[in-house]
């Protein structure tokens, strides 16, 4: 088997279950535990694996809202504006996007009003941000 296919199988297992043990990953990827450890160490060093997380079903969070916010930024201020947005504690995750919005931010807050406050008080106050469009997650389907 090629190194690429081994790497892909290991990453596939981790994407399905970030808490899988090395033994479980080895079994599911059809490699040895030392191979799993070697690849995961390399993938972490190379920045391919940037962290491990839990998938959350927003409908099961009592008193919590999760919103994806599309953010528009002046192109001439993109780098400094993006850097300022990443500094906001309220932003769980930030992605660059080729879709309808330049950036997509994930915000988790106690309720919709709190999300609105983060947008109005924090995101829109950053120089270079021209618009923010929230979409509230209702139910995880897959």
Q: What's this entry about, in short?
A:
The chain is an alpha+beta fold. It has helices spanning 3-16, 22-29, 33-45, 78-86, 112-123, and strands at 65-73, 91-96, 103-109, 129-136. The chain folds into two domains: 6-46, Arc Repressor Mutant, subunit A (Orthogonal Bundle); 63-136, Alpha-Beta Plaits.
- Low-confidence segments: none
What is the level 1 CATH name of the largest domain? Alpha Beta
Please estimate the helix content.
Answer: 25-40%
Spell out the CATH superfamily of the largest domain.
Lrp/AsnC effector binding domain/regulation of amino acid metabolism (RAM) domain
Largest sheet: 4 strands, antiparallel
Number of domains: 2
Keywords: DNA-binding, Transcription, Transcription regulation
GO molecular function: sequence-specific DNA binding
Domain HTH asnC-type: 3-65
InterPro entries: ArsR-like_HTH, AsnC-type_HTH_dom, Dimeric_a/b-barrel, LrpA1, Tscrpt_reg_AsnC-like, Tscrpt_reg_AsnC/Lrp_C, WH-like_DNA-bd_sf, WH_DNA-bd_sf
């Amino acid at each position: 088997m090629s190194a690429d296919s081994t790497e892909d199988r290991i990453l596939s297992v981790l994407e399905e279950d970030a808490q899988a043990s090395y033994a479980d990953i080895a079994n599911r990827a059809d490699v040895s535990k030392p191979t799993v450890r070697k690849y995961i160490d390399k993938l972490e060093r190379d920045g391919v694996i940037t962290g491990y997380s839990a998938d959350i079903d927003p409908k099961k969070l009592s008193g919590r809202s999760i919103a994806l916010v599309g953010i528009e930024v002046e192109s001439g201020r993109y780098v400094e504006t993006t850097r300022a947005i990443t500094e906001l504690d309220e932003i769980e995750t930030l992605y660059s996007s080729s879709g309808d919005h330049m950036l997509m931010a994930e915000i988790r807050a106690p309720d919709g009003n709190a999300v609105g406050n983060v947008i109005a008080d924090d995101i829109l106050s950053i120089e270079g941000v021209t618009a923010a469009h929230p979409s509230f997650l209702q139910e995880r389907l897959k």
